[in-house]
Design a protein that fits this description.
Layout: E1 10-11, H1 21-26, H2 28-39, E2 42-47, E3 50-55, H3 61-65, E4 71-72, H4 74-85, H5 98-105, H6 111-134, H7 147-151, E5 154-157, H8 158-175, E6 177-178, H9 184-199, H10 201-205, H11 214-225, H12 229-232, E7 235-236, H13 240-250, H14 256-271, H15 274-287, H16 289-303, H17 320-325, H18 327-340, E8 341-343, E9 345-349, E10 353-356, E11 362-365, E12 370-373, H19 376-379, E13 397-398, E14 401-402, E15 407-408, E16 411-412, H20 430-447, E17 448-452, E18 472-474, E19 482-487, H21 491-496, H22 499-522, H23 524-538
Parallel strand pairs: 1-2, 3-12
Antiparallel strand pairs: 2-3, 4-9, 5-19, 6-7, 8-18, 9-12, 10-11, 13-14, 15-16, 17-19
Bound molecules: protoporphyrin IX containing FE.
């Protein structure tokens, strides 16, 4: 291929076919930043046989997003997802109407259904916490045998802790309970298999045929079997989202394995990014005491909880309005997503056309080329985020409100935080993901005492991002990091404080709850305004 007048600069590298594939897989952000400094805001690179045009300046992102017709997202996913998860491409014409109906099913992750999902997720997070870490099974109210052990503190990897909690609570919320998976041992087994499959995920997405990875192929088969039609009948109380998808897939001539593979793909989508995101959100709060203190006191203030926190016997209610009032919590979550997300937004050019970038510039693009945005470069741009490598929990707060205006070269950005993609390919689970992450913080901070095992401050070296997954979403840490954890308030502690004090605390809590109700009544309009603003964070206004 040779460069033509009007096209973006072309970088072919020295290696035939591979082009810049090696550098890209080693450190995509570094390569793209170097190319940007030489070739400017937009350039085309040969990567493993594909010509990929990167638009690096976030002020130009709207130009790409608005060309949804010429720049199609699903052509790409329909090439990558089917061989990775094991179902046939759905846009081949063999399944008329299926792609649109699948898109419609994503509505069930939002709106009113989101409230139901959130309610169920919180219950499952608490049940999982009680069961696995504190020795109390779902539905049980009494302390189990591990109570004392936990009361005196335990140590484990923070990633392992987040993975276990988020995986189990997410599976229970989306798929329901399974007569065999009632036993947490079975869910744990499912998680282990999932995590082994996930370790090979970058290779599969990179195009390696699964038959070359015999163990991964076998694992995928086992994972799919958990979700084939016969197994799905044994899941009790699935979410409306999963129930609808089961009915939908049954209407099409798919084999049982192919149906199971679709459900398995949703499992990956729902936890593959949420688990590493949970790790970074909690890690940053533990590493930065001022962030921890501000977020915890905000949570307690909004929920009207006095004292250290809650005991296991206390239940927790978190309405969407409660979460919405927690602007420091939301900012802390966004800041962790900014620092850890490295998803690539990919589109396939459907025809030769001229894409207008701004009032002065346009470029020629060729049919079948890939157009990509790499928002990690925006997230780490010092012009937009001063000291971009530093964690600042309140970066997304301005005064006493959410901050939703960010600028580059003095111009306001339409897109400033893009962990969830953009335009037509935007993650349909983004609202649920934010709720899950906030709920996890509330649960851990209110019920547990958590500390990094080896230091109490951020002066230690933070874990590095595992760049092997660059382009695929939230990057996990290269290594896990140990945390000590214990219950904040054990029954024993409460007794120790004496009945009178316990009564006072209950009274104070009651007063706090009354205050909360008064605020709820007063603030409804204010909440609506804030919700509208929050939409700016997860959904750009023009979409
Ligand atoms: C922090 C958590 C999450 C992050 C960062 C994230 C990010 C993303 C991104 C970037 C995409 C677009 C992929 C692309 O452009 O190629 C995507 C797609 C998707 N996500 Fe998420 N996601 C998260 C959580 C969730 C959750 C909790 C669910 C569901 C319960 C979910 C369901 C999906 C689905 C179904 C798609 C495919 C959409 C389509 O094919 O049109 N995600 N996600």
């Amino acid at each position: 291929r040779t460069w033509r007048e009007g096209e973006p600069p072309l970088v072919k590298g020295c290696l035939p076919f591979l082009g810049k594939a090696v550098e890209f897989s080693q450190d995509a952000l570094k390569l793209l930043t170097q190319l940007q400094s030489t070739h400017g805001d937009i350039f085309t690179v040969l990567i493993a046989g594909r010509y990929m045009t990167f638009v690096m300046n976030p002020l130009l992102y709207p130009a790409v997003v608005k060309h949804g017709r010429q720049l199609d997202f699903h052509v790409f996913t329909d090439t990558v997802a089917p061989p990775t998860f094991g179902y046939p491409p759905i846009r081949s014409g063999a399944y008329p109407g299926l792609p649109d109906r699948i898109q419609s099913s994503f509505q069930l992750l939002q709106g009113d259904q989101l409230t139901r999902l959130s309610h169920s997720m919180l219950g499952n997070l608490l049940a999982t916490l009680r069961h696995h870490f504190l020795g109390v099974g779902p539905g049980q109210r009494e302390a189990g045998p591990d109570w004392q052990k936990v009361g005196s503190g335990r140590e484990m990897g923070l990633y392992a802790l987040c993975e276990s909690l988020m995986f189990q609570a997410s599976v229970l919320t989306l798929y329901g309970t399974h007569n065999r998976t009632h036993s947490p041992g079975v869910l744990e087994e499912l998680r282990r298999k999932f995590s082994q499959f996930d370790a090979r995920f970058p290779l599969l997405v990179g195009g390696m045929p699964i038959w070359l990875l015999a163990r991964t192929n076998a694992l995928r088969g086992e994972l799919i079997r958990h979700f084939d039609p016969r197994s799905m009948q044994q899941w009790d109380g699935p979410s409306d989202f999963i129930r609808t998808r089961v009915q939908l897939l049954n209407e099409y001539p798919l084999t049982d394995v192919e149906k199971g593979a679709h459900h398995f793909a949703i499992l990956w989508a729902s936890v593959g990014n949420t688990i590493p995101a949970a790790f970074w959100v909690i890690y940053h709060l533990l590493a930065y005491p001022e962030a921890f203190a501000a977020v915890k006191s905000e949570i307690q203030e909004v929920l009207g909880i006095k004292g250290e926190g809650l005991s296991l016997n206390d239940d927790l209610t978190l309405t969407p309005e409660d979460l919405d009032r927690m602007i420091y919590l939301e900012s802390a979550v966004c800041e962790s997503l900014r620092l850890s997300s490295a998803s690539m937004n990919v589109r396939v050019c459907q025809e030769d056309f001229e894409m207008r970038l701004d009032s002065q510039r346009s470029v020629h693009l060729r049919k079948d080329d890939i157009i990509a945005l790499y928002p990690q470069s925006m997230h780490m741009d010092p012009d937009i985020y001063p000291q971009p490598e530093v964690y600042k929990f309140d970066r997304f707060v301005l005064g006493s409100a959410r901050r939703s205006e960010f600028f580059k070269r003095g111009q306001r950005l339409h897109y400033f935080l893009m962990p969830f993609g953009s335009g037509g390919s935007k993650c349909p689970g983004r609202f649920f993901a934010l709720v899950e992450l906030k709920q996890l913080v509330c649960v851990l901070l209110l019920y547990c005492r958590l500390e990094l095992a080896h230091t109490h401050t951020h002066t230690h070296t933070p874990p590095k991002l595992d760049t092997a997954r660059a382009g695929l979403g939230i990057l996990p840490p290269k290594t896990d990091i140990a945390v000590c954890y214990a219950l904040l308030c054990t029954e024993k502690n409460e007794e120790g404080r004496g009945g009178g004090q316990g009564e006072n605390e209950k009274k104070e809590r009651g007063e706090g709850e009354n205050k909360k109700k008064e605020r709820e009544a007063e603030g409804e309009n204010e909440i609506k305004d804030r919700l509208a603003m929050k939409e700016g964070l997860v959904n750009s206004p023009e979409e």
